[in-house]
Amino acid sequence: MAMIDKDAFVASLNQDPEFAVAGRFFNGSMKLDMGDDPVLLTFRDGKLANLSTANTFDAADVAIRGSEEDWHEFLQLVPKPFYHDMFAAVVREGFEWSGDVVTLFAYYGAFRRMFDVMRQNATL
Fold first, then answer.
1. How many domains does the chain have?
2. What digits encode the pLDDT tens for the residues 40-78?
3. Where are the alpha helices (DSSP H) in 1-124?
4. In this structure, is residue 1 part of a structural domain?
5. Residue 92's domain is classified under what CATH number?
6. Both ends of the chain: CA-CA distance in Å?
7. What Rg do the C-alpha atoms of the chain give, in angstroms?
8. pLDDT reported for residue 56
């Protein structure tokens, strides 16, 4: 995950009290296709248990795809309009999501906080 400091992101997310509350029951996975740098995030009991390089055949409960340029805009500390939130970025910009809609929206608060923490650990 070249756009963020992977180790700092995992540590920050697992220590974040807002994420701990919002994601406390989440057991699942999310695949992020960040241009040429796909990653697989695996969550257990509301903690980010593993962050690894994803391959084409990795399945995930939720997947989000975007170009490297779109991720660069999204990960800015102060993003421009419609890059401030993943739902807005999917609806108005070049991001796509797929997977289990129930999981996506049941844990959207946790995912939103996760992306905020990801921004704080960006290496742009």
1. 1
2. 999 999 999 999 999 888 999 999 999 999 999 999 999
3. 6-15, 17-22, 68-74, 86-92, 101-106, 108-120
4. no
5. 3.30.1050.10
6. 11
7. 13
8. 85
